[in-house]
Each structure stands twice: as C-alpha cells, then as structure tokens.
Amino acid sequence: MDVMPLLLLVAGSAAVAAAGRRVPVPVPLLLVAVGLVVGYVPGVPDYTLDPHVVLPLLLPPLLYTAASDSSYLDLRAQTRPVALLSVGYVLFATFVVGCAAYLIVPGLPLTAALVLGAVVAPPDAVAATAVARRVGLPSRITTILQGESLVNDATAITAFKVALAAAVGEGATWAGGIGEFLIAAVGGVGVGLVLMVPLHWLRTHLREALLQNTLSLLIPFVAYAVAEQVHASGVLAVVVVALYLGHRAWEVDFATRLQEEAVWKMVAFVLESAVFALIGLQLPVVLKGLGEYEGVEAAWYALALFLVVAVARFVWVYPATFLPRLSARVRAREGDLSWKGPFVIGWAGMRGVVSLAIAFSIPLTVHGGEPFPERNLILFLTFTTVIGTLVVQGVSLPPLIRLLKFPAHDVQAETLAEANAQAQASRAAEQRLDDLLTDERNALPGPLADRLRMVLERRRNAVWERLGQVNPVTGETVDDTYRRLSREMISAERDVFVRLRDGRYIDDEMLRTLLRRLDLEEAAAYRETT
User: Which of 5, 19, 25, 147 is deepest in the core (most CB within 10 A)?
Assistant: First the structure.
C-alpha cells in the first residue's frame, strides 16, 4: 500500500489550514480552492473518495468532536427547530430537488433523480461547524445549525437507501421507507443509550489519563460500528454517546480533560483540513467520468440544481419557523423573533463531504447488469452543488451577518456572570478548606495554608479585574499584565535549567521533570486569567 499520497494529503492540507488562519478567507473555502487547483498539477495522484473510508472512518470522529463540544441543554431547548430541519427539511429537500432534477435533466429517471435529491439534501456537520465558529453567529442560531448537522446525515442516508433500492430495481414503498427510517432512527438512539452509560463508567474508572484518552479515540468508532452492525443509524449512536459524555465530562479527572482537549483539537484539525481538501481534489475525478455531456449543458444543469437547493431551504425554513408560532404557548416560550435569524439559517445550508461520499457509493449497475442511469452526471451535480454552497454561501455568510447587525455578545454581562459563579465557588472552596484544617490529620504549617487561600483569592479576583481595569500606559488589563510577568519569570527559570543541563550539573531526565513543572505553572497562570 502506497502511503505517500495520504501523507501528502494530510501534510499539505494541514499546511494550507495553518496558513489560512492568517488570511481573511474562511479556512474551509481556502482548502477547497487549493484542492481544486492542486488536482490539475501534473504528478498529483487521483484522490477518489471511498465511501467505505469516509463514512465509517472519517464521519464518526468528526461527529463525535462536534457533538461533545455542543451543549445537550441548549440542544434540548431547541428540539423543535432542530427536528424540523434535520428530519423534515431533509425529506422535503430530497423530494423537491429530486423532482426538479427529473424535470431539468432530460432522460433522468425519477428514481435516480430522488437518489440525487437524497444525496444533496443534508447540510454538512463539518462545514456548518467550521463556518459557525468563524463568523460568530448568535448562540441560538449556532445551536440550531449544529444540532441539524449532527442528526440530518442519518435522515439523508436512510432516504438515500430507500431511493437507491427503487432505482436499482429492488423495490421500495413509502411504508417500507418510513419503517426503515424508524428502525434506523430508534435503533441508532437505542444503541447510543445502551452504550453511553457503560462507556462513561469505563472512562471514569480507568486509572491513567493515557488509557482514558485511548478509549476516547475508540468510542466514536465503536458506537458507529455497533449501530451499523444491527442495521441502525451509526450517526445517531455516535451523537447520543458524545452528547452524554460531553455533558458529564466534569466527572473525569483534570489530566484526562486537558489531554483529551488537546488530542481532539488535533484530530479535528487534521480531519477537517483533509476533508475540505479532498472535496476540491475530486474535480478531475468527477470530470473524467462526465462523458457525453457538453460543458455548457452540464453547467446549466449544475446552476439550475444549485438554485433549487438554495431556494428550497428558504421555502422550508420560514414556514417551519413561523407557523409553530401561531400557538400562543410557543410565542410565550420563545419571545419575539425577527426575520434575520431564519434568513441566516436558510443561507447557511452548506453541503460537504458526506454528500460526496454518499454519491460515490452509488453502484455502477442496477439489476440486470445495466449501468446505473446517469451515475456520472449525478456525481458531477453533487460536486457542483457542494462547491457552490461552500463558495457562494460560505464566502457571503460573514459579510451577510455583519450587514444584518445581530446584537453583539454582551461581554460585560458574561464576565459578570462568570465572576458571580467564581465567587460562589470560591466561598464553597474556602469553607471546605476551613473544615478540612480543623482535622488534625490535615494539619498544615501556616504559610502553606495561607498560600492555598492566596491562590483561591487570586482566582476569585482575576475575573472581576477583567470588568474594566486597564493599564493607561500599556493598554493591558490587569490579567494581561499578570500573565505577561508570570511568563517572563518562568522563562528566566527555564533558561537557568537549560544552562545547568548544558553544563552537566543536571541530566536530561531531571531537566524534563523541572520543565514539566514550569509548564504546569505557566498553564495555571494562563488559565487563571482567561
């Protein structure tokens, strides 16, 4: 097996993503654009998306990290809009886009058109999360988009299976399709519910952070594989497990949380970078198979389908948002709602790698050995729809949000809430310390007890200091100055340790021990002021 193309993909996409953090263009779009160009560089191998790799190996960790970073409580509060988008909209888009493709493309059978509709129906979890993080959407809109993108893949994959069965001649009915969807959905949620408690128990009872993080890396693959083995939705199983574990992450020890955060940030960075680069690299592969369609004709089909996809989302989003508000109960619970939020949700339906992976899983032939009708055209239209939504909607979304002038986050109110929470926690910690020191088994010399109180006091005051104290000379806040001075002191200590090692006064093992202690001190100083 030649691993060089894989190494080039990972290294190249990571380098582009790192460079993209310094330019105003969203990183996902930059990766796609570079992939489009690199795909035609002589000597670059063909990177064909393999659905047997993308769906079971790339999708689970991406879903897991997105779901574990989401808020279970926020998602539960937005159950209705999330369900309407992740289930209702996907089925609606499957039907509308399928019928439109049937009318637009001469000779395309309705069953094959519905396959195309199911393929391009779901907005992508990776794209939605990446863009939402970059543009700073209001929290409610971000929660809805993230919740939709976590669940809608399960709906789309089930709809695709039903449409594909009809297209290849295996037969499919509406009743059978609804039954398959219910089995997949209920089964996926059931597998997640069954796995989440024992996995959490195992996670909290492993004694070493290294073992706990190894388990964390395996969890999404285990949940996905078990669910798919019983013909349930692996997507929903991963999401349920990740939401539960993320909600109870506080029960894991601090070393595991610190390591896990770093590990999953690295995994998400590498996979997201590679996924967006892969999207761009598909252009030569897709065009090679386009065959008999002329450039102008294929471009017309692509433009028409993109417009249908974009318009259909608005057609669903506005009624789904405002019709439930005819109920006085819903209005009282959710308050006033402007047209701006639904507009952004409607415009933020970027498609991504899942659509391409599903499209590439379309078989070459139907029953009887006949070629699958217009398979290459379906791949092409899927690709152009993904690129169109990423480029047109992804590029225009940040200026659109600025133009709509959503209320900015009230930083002072958030800091005040944080300070109040810290004050309550500090009082509880101080009371606990006083109770412990009354026991002679916990006797400490006075200076050490005072040091514990001093650290607690510094942690409590750091948040209040962020409410407005600024150094008139440097423009730094108090916590900025504290962090800078702390790092300067630690840097001076580090230089001495290295000089002592170089002079053979201490060995490398002792140097690593001392440097780790300084690293923890520096991390503590940073966290106390952020």
Answer: 147
